Amino acid sequence: MSVTYNFCAGPAMLPQAVMQKAQSELLDWNGLGTSVMEISHRSKEFIALTEQAEIDLRELMSIPANYHVLFMHGGGRGQFSAVVNNFLGKQGKALYLVSGSWSQSAVEEAKKLTCDAQIDSINIAENTNGINQIVLPDLAKIDQDYRYLHYCPNETVDGIEIFDELDSPWPIIADMSSNIMSREIDVSKYAVIYAGAQKNIGPSGLSIVIVRDDMLELPSLPQSSIMDYGLGVKHGSMYNTPPTFAWYLAAEVFAWLKDSGGVVAMAKRNLKKAALLYDFIDSSDFYTSKVCQSNRSVMNVTFYLANEELNASFLKGATDANLVALKGHRSVGGMRASIYNAMPIEGVEALVEFMQDFAGKNQA
């Protein structure tokens, strides 16, 4: 069986070693004679799994003791509303930085949920001569009393990443769905970090929320109990039945990350993968990037063919070469190679080789 490299933005490829382990344990997990999907989430065996998963995640991200870790339903979009309902309260105000499609979606969701609260937003993405970049505002000059500032450090659709730490006078909430554990961050700089699992953690349907304890004291809005962070903390992420198989796979991914050298080692590999692909794009007049170098996403490499009439042919050829899911998001077109933690360097090498060959055969 030939190797297929899956460049899907999400749900994304999982580490091969994790998938093989899950396959071997599918019908008999932990010697119980049943699948992990079939046992009680309150059994001592599953509780042990969840406790180890949290220990591993805390170690991987160096999460301080005054932060709670929640394993929740809803994915990233579910947290768009949960953030508002948990922290904004009546007559609260929040500031959203808009850098692309997902941060804009967070704004739109927040505005739907607020009646007497105030949602302000600042567009920080600029396009100059066809090149996209991030221009951060001087937040210290904004004379407002916001409950929190929300932003998305990595935009999967646009291939834009913010590497600078924000200097914010208000608590920072970050949607790290697409770059969590791809590089080191200082968790203490954030009040809340949340992430849909389906890119660097596990399958879709699970989300991780890392919340500083003082944030749980903010006034909240009426909301569903399963998205209440306070209830989640009180009940150990088990107010209702959690997505157990997704939690199991996340635990296996955390273990794989630790065995692979942790976030520090993964960051080096990710930079190497991204540099290989971006360097080739920059060296070619057949392909182009529309993101300035200082804001190019390490996880989601967007690029365009000089002759876009060849897009369909490129995608077919790539699929024939076992390089799948390279079509760019429908809102921006072009191509997108998502190279999350699970993508090996061999996958990027194979993609560059195909791109070089395709350009040679189709150069005008």
TrEMBL record:
Catalytic activity: 4-(phosphooxy)-L-threonine + 2-oxoglutarate = (R)-3-hydroxy-2-oxo-4-phosphooxybutanoate + L-glutamate; O-phospho-L-serine + 2-oxoglutarate = 3-phosphooxypyruvate + L-glutamate
SUPFAM superfamilies for the chain: PLP-dependent transferases (SSF53383)
GO biological process, one term: pyridoxine biosynthetic process
Cofactors that this protein relies on: pyridoxal 5'-phosphate
Cofactor note: Binds 1 pyridoxal phosphate per subunit.
Enzyme class: transferase
Cell compartment(s), UniProt: Cytoplasm
One MF term in the entry's GO annotations: pyridoxal phosphate binding
Binding site for L-glutamate: R42
Associated pathway: Amino-acid biosynthesis; L-serine biosynthesis; L-serine from 3-phospho-D-glycerate: step 2/3; Cofactor biosynthesis; pyridoxine 5'-phosphate biosynthesis; pyridoxine 5'-phosphate from D-erythrose 4-phosphate: step 3/5
GO cellular component entries: cytoplasm
Keywords: Amino-acid biosynthesis, Aminotransferase, Cytoplasm, Pyridoxal phosphate, Pyridoxine biosynthesis, Serine biosynthesis, Transferase
Sequence positions that bind pyridoxal 5'-phosphate: G76, R77, W102, T156, D175, Q198, N240, T241
Pfam families tied to this protein: Aminotran_5
Superkingdom of source: Bacteria
Family membership: Belongs to the class-V pyridoxal-phosphate-dependent aminotransferase family. SerC subfamily.
Protein name: Phosphoserine aminotransferase
